[in-house]
């Protein structure tokens, strides 16, 4: 039986306005531990088995609104089901952590792994 194991590979990085939706040359900011834990929990809590056949990476760009809710702006992945899954799992979910600033863009990389259960 296959299980999905989700790992936030690179936690969160603050982004600034640029031509690219996902910055590549910016200096990473400190890891936001509580927010990373919350995102991991949100992504793991809605998992439905069956859509993942191999290890996948996704980049998620989001902003936090005035209600401290995640608003997903873009999910970059080769797998459309991953894109949909991440957007549904995170969009408009309220964060209890107060580490993020309202209106700033953030991104993180998420790694989806399959591990055979014995």
List keywords for this structure.
118 residues; alpha+beta; 20% helix
Notes on the protein architecture:
This protein has helices spanning 33-45, 80-90, and strands spanning 2-14, 56-64, 70-76, 105-116. Helix content is 20%, strand content 35%. A hairpin with a 5-residue loop joins strand 2 and strand 3 (70-76). With 118 residues, the protein is of the alpha+beta class. A four-stranded antiparallel beta sheet has the order 1-4-2-3, covered by helices on one side.
SSE topology sketch:
Layout: E1 2-14, H1 33-45, E2 56-64, E3 70-76, H2 80-90, E4 105-116
Antiparallel strand pairs: 1-4, 2-3, 2-4
Kindly report the spatial arrangement of strands forming the biggest sheet.
1-4-2-3
Number of helices: 2
> How large, in whole angstroms, is the Cα Rg?
14 Å
* Percent of sequence in beta strands: 25-35%
The helix-strand sequence is EHEEHE
Average pLDDT confidence is: 74
Looking at how many chains there are and whether they match, the oligomeric state comes to single chain
Helix/strand structural class: alpha+beta
